[in-house]
């Protein structure tokens, strides 16, 4: 897998963000922050591009399930000097309360700015290719800073950006249940996945060639199967093709046209 110049890449992404926001006519960003490395990197790069006063972090813990994630997210936010008045925390567990209750008042801080804000995403290339995301969920964003980088490359970028050590050291997790981790779900490591994905899809190697590099055939096939199984996530919603119009003349209606349906 290709190594990246992390310093150059950080500058390049920050410039891309700044230029894209300006071109689109927006000056502020909204980012969902989980306490994981991807959202922390996205947050840091967006602050580089727009400044800490133009970034609005959103924390959405599920009750007490991800308490450590909230603490880690706040450490990243404080390290970047983002105003605490910009931080919105919504417990998504009591969903009805979020919709109709007092917690929605916490969105006031965002409402003031979101008319001129874009949602910055946190997706990396590994998760995208493997289909490890929810369509219209965590993949819903206006702009993706590092969707071209594999997970291990994002981690290297995180080290360069001096993301808090507590975030760098913990295993990546979607926070779906206690002790859940991405790699447990996969049944393989990000390190192996990134190398194999790069060989298969960037360098266009065959399975035989990837096995020849030294990877176990079962692992290579498992990763390729997962990619194939989730490939539907990369398409737009399935739509029926327009039927060609067959023009018929109905003599009983005085020559009125009708189509071929019915």
Quick summary:
The protein has twelve helices and six strands. With 262 residues, it is an alpha/beta fold.
Note down, in words, how this protein is organized.
This protein is α/β, with parallel strands linked by helices. The chain contains 12 helices and 6 strands. The strands form 2 sheets. Strands 3-2-1-4 form a 4-stranded parallel sheet, with helices on both faces. Strands 5-6 form a two-stranded antiparallel sheet. The longest helix has 19 residues, at 6-24. The chain starts with 5 loop residues before the first helix and ends with a strand.
Overview features:
Rossmann fold; 6 strands; 4-stranded parallel beta sheet; 12 helices; alpha/beta; 262 residues; globular; two-stranded antiparallel ribbon
Biggest sheet details: 4 strands, parallel
Order of helices and strands: HEHEHEHHEHHHHHHHEE
The CATH H-level superfamily of the largest domain is HUPs
First and last CA, distance: 57 Å
Strand order of the largest sheet: 3-2-1-4
Mean of residue pLDDT? 85
Q: Which ranges are low-confidence, i.e. pLDDT below 50, for 5 or more consecutive residues?
A: 96-107
Helix content: 40-55%
Q: Given the helix and strand composition, which structural class is it?
A: alpha/beta
The number of domains: 2
Question: What would the principal axes of the Cα set say about the shape?
Answer: globular
CATH fold call of the largest domain: Rossmann fold
Rg from alpha-carbon coordinates: 23 Å
CATH architectural designation of the largest domain: 3-Layer(aba) Sandwich
What's the number of helices?
Answer: 12
Beta strand %: 5-15%
Number of strands: 6
CATH class value of the largest domain: Alpha Beta
GO molecular function: ATP binding; glutaminase activity; NAD+ synthase (glutamine-hydrolyzing) activity; NAD+ synthase activity
Keywords: ATP-binding, Ligase, NAD, Nucleotide-binding
Domain NAD/GMP synthase: 11-237
Pathway: Cofactor biosynthesis; NAD(+) biosynthesis
């Amino acid at each position: 897998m290709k190594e990246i110049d992390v310093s150059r890449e950080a500058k390049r992404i920050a410039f891309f963000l700044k230029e894209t926001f300006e071109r689109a006519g927006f000056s502020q960003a909204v980012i969902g922050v989980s306490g994981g490395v991807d959202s922390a990197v996205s947050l840091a790069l967006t602050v580089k591009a727009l400044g800490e006063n133009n970034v609005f972090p959103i924390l959405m813990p599920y009750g007490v399930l991800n308490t450590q994630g909230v603490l880690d997210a706040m450490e990243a936010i404080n390290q970047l000097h983002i105003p605490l008045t910009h931080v919105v925390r919504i417990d998504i567990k009591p969903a009805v309360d979020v919709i109709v209750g007092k917690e929605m008042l916490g969105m006031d801080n965002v409402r003031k700015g979101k008319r001129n804000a874009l949602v910055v995403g946190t997706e990396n290339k590994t998760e995208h290719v493997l289909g490890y995301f929810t369509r219209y969920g965590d993949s819903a964003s206006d702009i993706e800073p590092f969707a071209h980088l594999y997970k291990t490359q994002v981690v290297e970028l995180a080290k360069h950006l001096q993301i808090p050590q507590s975030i760098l050291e913990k295993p990546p997790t979607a926070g779906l249940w206690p002790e859940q981790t991405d790699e447990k779900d996969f049944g393989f490591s990000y390190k192996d996945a990134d190398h194999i994905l790069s060989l298969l899809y960037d360098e266009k190697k065959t399975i035989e060639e990837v096995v020849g590099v030294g990877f176990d055939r079962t692992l290579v096939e498992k990763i390729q199967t997962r990619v194939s199984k989730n490939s539907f996530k990369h398409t737009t919603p399935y739509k029926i093709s327009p039927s060609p119009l067959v023009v018929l003349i109905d003599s009983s209606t005085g020559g009125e046209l009708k189509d071929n349906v019915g």
